[in-house]
# Entry
Amino acid sequence: MVFVKTHDISELNSENIGKEVVLGGWIEDLRKLGKMTFITLRDVSGISQIIVKGELNENLEELNRQSVISVKGIVQETKARDFNFEIKAEEIDVLAKAIHPLPVDPIGRVESNIDTRLNHRALDMRNQKTAAIFKLRHHVLASLRKTLSEKKFIEITTPKIIGSASEGGANLFSLEYFGKTAYLAQSPQLYKEQMTIGLERVFEISNFYRAEKSHTGRHLSEFTSVDIEAAFMDYNDVMDVLEYLIMEVYNFTSKNCKKEQEAIGHEIKIPSTPFERITYTQVINELKSSGEKIEFGDDLLDSHLRIIGNNHPGFYFLIDWPMKLKPFYIREKDDDATLSRSFDLQYGYLELSSGGTRLHNPNILKSRLKEQGLDPVQFTDHLQTFDWGMPPHSGWGMGLDRLMTTLIGIDNVREVVLYPRDPERLKP
# Structure
């Protein structure tokens, strides 16, 4: 018989002592001491001790660690140091038996490498450090949505199967689509710009795709991006929004996720504000002072960003990039047409976000497309919306997975993604 669960373990308190409850979870530990058995039962919310005595204790041969059970019993006081109370079992129902040995030890007594854990990801979720990471990710997403809604942004969902390159890039996955060639979207860029015509402020939190053969701890083929676009804002305004969002995430999780921080062994520390804003020109001068051979207009390599990251630890904006290094839709500065109204948000050497003020003049936009070797005809559907009255607008996209690594002090994005996809990993 399957008992109906009455409580999560974390809901139990001193008021339940003497009352009958039904718990459900998996056996984390099992110790038989003579005529008594101690079961450590865990569910997603917490852990409890189950005491089994008498005739019930004699029929526990089928129980083993990590099996799923439901327990009906009475809450009572305990002398155990690690528990505030215990459950005296009256009935136990084995719901699902676990094999032995398991491919991954969820308790962590036997350490497994990350690839082994990813190959058995569902079981890895019983490891409390792993579970804490994804509980934190849940709270981060909730914080982002709450804050953006309060700032009058409207959540949208854009297509992930598209007919042409959204940003003109080459790193696209192509697929056959009913006799036509389609692509997986690498960004919601063009769609979110179009939505500012009527909705003004929009955001999207969704997965996107890049066919890059990168083998680093910060690149994925499928990643979660947080994107905004806002009419009547310039790049300084949307930088302010981004900084505020990050501070809200850090403040909320630092205050409300104490158990998760304890489980991962990392204290979330609030960054200092305001985030420093450094121009591309300043960066070039810093690199030259460090002995690097680099000139204005050169793109910044990973080695360059590591030098700058050492000089500027934590969060900072890298602003006013050369126009030639930015996508076709970025607008130039009024006082210097060689520079763009653009920025990257960095955490040390790690790029978290890229954004800027967009072009909203269709004629200039067409010229920019041609300058970058792109055919305006391929962007007809997008360009026509600019003839309908496109407001000035700005926006950015931020990698959620990378933000998570900064929050919890882990340098591999695969740790914060349920089932990561990279050039070598397509399963499970």
